[in-house]
Amino acid sequence: MENFFSISEAAKMANMTSETLRHYDRIGLVKASRRDEASKYRYYTKEDIVRLHTIRALQQMDLSLHEIKCILEYDDLQMVVDFLKKAEKTADEKIAELQYSKSKIQLARSDYEKKLYRQQNRTEFYTRYFPKRVILLSNSLEAPTLNNLWNYLSHFYDRIEPSQRDLFAFEDLAGIYTEKNLSRLFAVCIRYTDMDGLKILPSGTYLCADCTEQTRGQVLSKLIQIAKEQYHLEPTFTIQLIVISGILQWNYQIQILIEDE
């Protein structure tokens, strides 16, 4: 039937089971918009699918089915809209918290990976896949110092117009982006909107090396040489990710793109 979906189709679209939809029907949470009297088959509309997605999302906010049912049955539609706006804000806060936790886990994983590489007697140069990243470049800072790393992200929030700051969020990471002999510190964006200074780092395989402040120039030159000789490419940009190694101490992970997706 046009504009109607069977229970199995609706369940698949909502990433639920058919039995879940039958349960929702029994408790009055989502009633099938059409039911064939002869076959007793349930049929759902696009509006029903939207309601199912909303319920699934609200469950992720630790709301019970009873609470969700009460909310979605408000007579005042403005109350429903206001509640969903509040839930959206709470979801953004949870995402930011998870991204912050993720960045700390990545730092810990990086440290253990380096120990594993040394344990396996691997070469100091290695390849690693990175997904697409969006970074915001500093308009003035070229290299890390004790002062600018102490309150690093405040510098980037200060770059953004006050009316747009809520549209941005950053990972707890720092780095140096170099292109055409111009270097700038950058922050990795979790959430962003269009503005000057944004750069997209393509997803793909990067040639990497770990180094200290003292060996950074030497290792970067060697990495560029390897990219040219072994991979036959001229790097258009380089990334020097700053890896905090202790209180007021840091090392680097240098990254050069050798194969984008």
Walk me through this protein's architecture:
With 261 residues, the protein is an alpha+beta fold. The protein folds into two domains: 5-73, Multidrug-efflux Transporter Regulator, Chain: A, Domain 2; 94-260, Multidrug-efflux Transporter 1 Regulator Bmrr, Chain A (Alpha-Beta Barrel), CATH 3.20.80. Helices cover 43% and strands 26% of the residues. It has eight helices and twelve strands. The strands form two sheets. Strands 4, 5, 6, 7, 8, 9, 10, 11 and 12 form a nine-stranded antiparallel sheet that branches. A three-stranded antiparallel sheet has the order 1-3-2. Helix 1 crosses helix 2 (18-27). It is elongated and about 80 Å long. It starts with a strand and ends with a strand.
CATH topology of the largest domain: Multidrug-efflux Transporter 1 Regulator Bmrr, Chain A
The largest β sheet comes out as: 9 strands, antiparallel
Uncertain regions spanning at least 5 consecutive residues: none
Task: Label the CATH architecture of the largest domain.
Answer: Alpha-Beta Barrel
Query: Using only CA atoms, what is the Rg?
Result: 25 Å
Following the backbone from N to C, one meets helices and strands in this order, namely EHHEEHHHEEHHEEEEEHEE
Structural domains: how many: 2
Give the overall pLDDT as a whole number: 88
Strand-residue fraction?
25-35%
Number of beta-strand segments: 12
